[in-house]
Amino acid sequence: MSLSGRRNAKNQSDRIGLDCQCNDFGVVILFYRYYPLPPTVTPPCTAKDLQRVFETSCSTHHLTGKIRLSTEGINATLAGTSEDVTSWVIENNPRWFFSDLQLLDTTDKELLWKQKCRAFFKPTKGCVHVFDELSVRVTEEVTPLGIRNYVPTNWKEENSKRKNDVIYLTPAEFHEMLRENESSTVVIDARNHYESSLGYFKGAVKPPIRKFSSLPDYLSDHRDTLFGEETKGEKKKILTYCTGGVRCEKLTRWMSESFREEEETPWVYTLEGGIQRYLDWMSEEIKGGRVSVEDSQWLGRNYVFDARGSTGLVLQEGQKEKLVGLCRGCGREAGGMNKCQGSTCHLHLVECRECIEGGEVYCCDSCRDGTKGKGLCDCEQQRHIFQFEQSLLHLTASRQFLSSADASYAMYLSHHSVEATMKTTVVVLLAVVALALADCPSFLKNCNGACYSEDAYCCVNGQLTQKQFCNNQPTPQPTSAPAPQPTSTPTPQPTGNPTPQPTFNPTPTPTKDVPVGGLLFEDNFDTLNLDTWQHELTMGGGGNWEFQYYTNNRSNSYVRDGVLYIKPTLTADTIGEDTMNGGSFNVWGGAPADECTSNAFWGCERSGGGGNIINPIQSARLRSVNSFSVNGGKVEIRAKLPRGDWLWPAIWMLPKRNSYGAWPASGEIDIMESRGNNATYPNHMGIDGFGSTLHWAPYTTANRWPLTHQEWHTTDGSDLGQKFHTYGLQWTKDRLFTYIDDPKNVVLDVKFDKSFFERGQFPSGTHNPWQGRGNAAPFDQEFYIILNVAVGGAADYFPDDVGGKPWSNKKPAASTVFWQARNQWLPTWKGEDAALQIDSVKVWKL
User: Fold this and answer.
1) Partner of 221 at 20 to 30 A CA spacing, among 15, 281, 299, 318?
2) Number of Cβ within a 10 Å radius of residue 354
3) Which residues are CB-contacts of 815 (< 8 A; sequence separation ≥ 6)?
4) What is the mean pLDDT of the chain?
5) Each residue's pLDDT tens digit, 808-836
6) Which is more confident, 335 or 740?
7) Signal peptide position in this chain (predicted)?
């Protein structure tokens, strides 16, 4: 069975990352070589001559793959049976392009796995059909750097560790430098953004580029940050890596020659043999029992340019690799890659196995709905606008705007649609306006001086970032945590128009035996049952860049005298203020009980420095996703709310399965959200009040939560932290409402008398994920309960200039400003009064 038999029709996007079922097991080799000088062979050999040599020898040995040849070198990936690949290596070893490397010290069938051959060819096991055909091409560069006519002044000499101030590190040396985690070390991923979305080394900078030739511009734009002179008195060390080493081989020389001139000591390092060689080495270390899987500095999967899609650690039975990619289709952790299924779109998307097999994942609505046509789809238009805007900002900063923008804009006009050009014109004008104004227009956000629309961008650590590169997560909304957390549960699609029935899994008594009005679940917190309540472990900030990270620690979640306490504390008390300000911290964990639960928004690992700090608050968020969920019923939580400035307690629910797609298409139910600020906080939205909300929309930026939001506050001068109150939800197939203390005291009341698509009045042509599912959809599926205390954040839940807030949502490093103002807010956090206190959780069948 050949790969071509599994491809889509002509002009349609091919799948990648598929498993072949033919059982034709083979080997894939990945190798490259640069020539320090033009090869001197007799007779003279041009790149065209070399092309014929490779075409003939590969065809003779039945190898497929890709080979790129130029006057500077060779870059190749080939596949075939182990016997065919081995015989090809033996045949070509005497030829001038291999002969001086002294690769072969044996000619047996295992030669590929001997030390020298293994290091050079980096063999991995795979199906022989990972390539459809053999492609041997002559190109200007074997991998385009984007710098015309650039030739390094020096190349590495064979058997030399150093040349031209570039140090080559073995996998063991690279591993040790990462493990030491020095604050003066900067790790740069030299690959494209879709490659790093699948996997990366811990602490790496992952540039949001679509092609390697864009990397020099990115590094130049961020030169001061990446290559600054000193960190705590030490010269910075730059570590680079890529898939097999070919990109870093030239990039590191360009970096060494372009930055930090007259440097006496070496400062640029690269992983020799790339990620693939590290994975090979680490797999052997794990197999030999010298290290554990958790010791690996590599996280996730390694993207490869063949039908396998990705490779990873070779693990033993019972061992599990840590996935960091998030499926574009369902939001779960994933290790696969596929292409957008739009008929003419080729964007690479992270996908799980179920979504790849389903084959219905698209990069954006224009591809899904078939409105893209032959031009750029919506997300590609936004990407081009983003790149053009970034170049304008860079030109402006270098005082070349007027002379260079016209030429850049003319080039843009010649390649893009009228619609994209009109959008770009607006961006150009806004970029100019931003230079003259101290702030942005009211309808735009400010990111470190750049004006932007939340429909297209987000602001990450003070850097304008296109929305599709924001970890594919929702734009911050005024809610406790908008991004549904991925689970291992498959995402089924509902069929028909089901009548909601309460469910509970597991239950003390089976649901079917519980009469109407019967108690399904009760927890009075005699103990903290970790089988019932699972802790989330993440620094992601709930999509709102909140200032806390969530952990499983008895200083933040504990039970005493029949009450559950969720109490925020200071991160500095745990890891120290020096680490928080300039070190690195991760919550990856080494066992199932303490593994990071979500890497969205850099949730598993963060670093301080450059004006930013690691999340300054430590708190807890408990959920019942693995123990019980309800589809309809009555839920009551008896709780006392926390007192303290900028505390954000929440009692809320998310769908167990995203039956209608990622947030907010599958809905969110906020029973109670409040602020810990005292009763002087404006509009009764401090500790004397709370809000109830439903979140829903076909896609993130269309969230219609204001249509299903209501607030409640006391009228007698009391606050909700003085005593326990009951926060309730009643939910049937016809209606959903929240209340306080008694069902007669209704807060939010939503009748399912019309569909939510009709209720939202979405624009014509908008995809309706709830079509044919009844008026209750998306609130016709199982939801689980979440209890948490967040702190602050850069969304608008705490509006600027209200209540004496010390930080601004429009400025970068908000958490740093918050921490620096701790003398203002910390005195208001008085012991257990600053904790959300839960007396009981009860669920009944209706």
Assistant:
1) 299
2) 16
3) 545, 547, 612, 613, 615, 616, 792, 807
4) 78
5) 988 778 999 999 999 999 999 999 999 99
6) 740
7) none
Q: What is the mean pLDDT of residues 341-353?
A: 79
Say if residue 426 is in the same domain as residue 542: no
421 and 565 fall within a common domain: no
Q: Is the pLDDT of residue 733 over 90?
A: yes
**Contact indicator for 583, 607 with CB cutoff of 8 Å:** yes
pTM recorded for the entire structure: 0.50
Contact between 342 and 377 under an 8 Å Cβ cutoff? The reply is yes
Phi (first) and psi of residue 66, to 5 degrees: -130, 130
How far is residue 675's CA from residue 65's CA, in Å, rounded to a whole number? 59
For residues 637 and 838, give the distance between their C-alpha atoms in angstroms, rounded to a whole number.
7
**pLDDT class for 463, splitting at 50, 70, 90?**
low
What is the β-pairing status of strands 268-271 and 237-241? Answer: parallel
Both tokens assigned to 644: 């303290």
User: Of 138, 173, 188, which closes a domain?
Assistant: 138
Convert 730-780 into a string of H (helix), E (strand) and C (coil): EECCCEEEEEECCCCCEEEEEECCCCHHHHHCCCCCCCCCCCCCCCCCCCC
Q: 96: domain range? A: 3-138
Q: How far is CA 773 from the centre of its chain?
A: 31
Which positions ≥6 away from 574 have C-beta within 8 Å?
A: 553, 618
Determine the 3-state secondary structure of 683 from DSSP. helix
What are the distances in angstroms from CA 407 to CA 247, 401, 414? 30, 10, 11
Alpha-carbon distance of 791 to 618, in angstroms, equals 9
| 31 burial via Cβ count (<10 Å: 0-12, 13-18, 19+) | buried
Is residue 95 over pLDDT 70? Answer: yes
Whether residues 98 and 18 fall in one domain: yes
- Rg of the chain on CA atoms, in Å: 29
- For residue 494, count other CB atoms closer than 10 A to its CB: 17
Strand-pair partners of 670? 652, 693
Q: Is 454 exposed, middle or buried (0-12, 13-18, 19+ CB in 10 A)?
A: middle
Question: What is each CA distance from 686 to 62, 650, 675, in whole angstroms?
Answer: 72, 13, 5
Residue 500 confidence class, pLDDT cut points 50, 70, 90? very low
Q: Does residue 536 sit in helix, strand or coil?
A: coil
Mean pLDDT is lowest, of 179-183, 600-604, 711-715, for: 179-183
Q: Is 484 within the bounds of a domain?
A: no
Q: Are residues 450 and 519 in the same domain?
A: no
Q: CA separation (Å) from 61 to 102, 348, 547? A: 22, 32, 59
Q: Which residues contact 436 (CB under 8 A, 6 or more apart)?
A: none
Per DSSP, the residues of 9-76 read PTTSPPP-SPPP-S--EEEEEEEEEE-SS----SS---HHHHHHHHHHHHHHTT-EEEEEEETTEEEE
Residue 676 falls within a domain, yes or no?
yes
In this structure, is residue 10 part of a structural domain? yes
CB atoms within 10 A of CB 24: 13
Instruction: Report d(CA 464, CA 105) in Å as an integer.
Output: 53
- Rounded Cα distance, 688 and 155, in Å: 69
Q: Give which of 515, 568, 516, 520 is closest to 546, Cα–Cα.
A: 568
Mean pLDDT, rounded, for 144-164? 63
Q: Which residues contact 237 (CB under 8 A, 6 or more apart)?
A: 177, 182, 184, 185, 186, 267, 269
Residue where a domain stops, chosen among 88, 122, 138: 138
